[in-house]
Amino acid sequence: MRKVYNSATEALAGQLRDGMTILSGGFGLCGVPMALIEAIRESGVRDLTIVSNNAGIDGAGLGILLESRQVKKMISSYVGENATFARQYLAGELEIEFNPQGTLAERVRAGGAGIPAFFTATGFGTAVADGKETREFDGKHYVMERGIIGDLAIVHAWMGDTEGNLVYRKTARNFNPIMASAAKITVAEVEHLAEPGAIDGDHIVTPGIFVKRIVKLDKIDKRIEQRTTRPRVSVAHSSLEKV
User: Per UniProt, what is one Pfam family of this protein (predicted)?
Assistant: First the structure.
């Protein structure tokens, strides 16, 4: 089965349609499938429901799909860095389904594991529980949350092989593994592409059975979401302070 494609556009060919639900890996701008998101923007599909920890920022990540008004609904845990999102939401042009971050992660994990619903104490007695079934177990109250399954998952991995096995690097692992397991089809962009057997089996995070299509990136766009620095202290000044 052919899994490797020459470009993000080719990898997504025939998989996009209006109104679909897309799971997107990443956290902030770390481990975000930038090339695949750009290919979705270029396709022009609309009325998308996007499941992601956050909505990117203005001009980067999922933010570019908001700017092109291709997103109908976001299912997220945090969207505070995106002014475009705020404007569209306040104008009633965009739906949002907020989730506590752990609940969102478990909803996606549950979807990938074939679990239709689960109970969690998080959110009970708050707006998060509005309209949802609640139960009491051993004297404690819980909210029922539904598992999430997407039509398509897009993920970013540090390395993959031609069979679709994926390895993530450090914090770029974040939401990518669970997103890869919880969709009808998963497309991965990888920084490095290896031949079958080249990746130590103990290092594989996402088995190739979950991944249907792969594209190797020609260039890698790694941005810093929040750059925080402090004034450099000269060696002479630092030495005087210690005297």
Answer: CoA_trans
Q: Is residue 239 in some structural domain? A: no
Structural domain for 190, as ranges: 4-117+147-216
pTM: 0.89
Residue with tokens 């030495």: 239
* Separation in Å, CA 152 to CA 19, 204, 211, 213, 231: 12, 21, 11, 11, 45
At 164, list the tokens. 């679709």
DSSP E strand stretches across 65-168:
71-76, 95-98, 117-120, 134-137, 140-146, 152-161, 166-167
- H/E element, 220: none
CA distance 74 to 96: 5
In this structure, the number of other CB atoms found within 10 A of the CB of residue 233 comes to: 10
pLDDT tens digits, 1-56: 789 999 999 999 999 999 999 999 999 889 999 999 999 999 999 999 999 999 88
Q: Residue 166's closest CA among 140, 182, 190? A: 190
- What CATH number has the domain bearing residue 112? 3.40.1080.10
In a domain, 235, yes or no: no
> How many domains are there within the chain?
1
3-state secondary structure of 113: helix
Q: How far apart are CA 225 and CA 80, in angstroms?
A: 12
- Show the DSSP H helices in 166-234 as ranges: 176-181
- Identify whether 127 is part of a domain: no
Is residue 212 one of the residues assigned to a domain? yes
C-alpha span between 196 and 153 (Å, rounded): 23
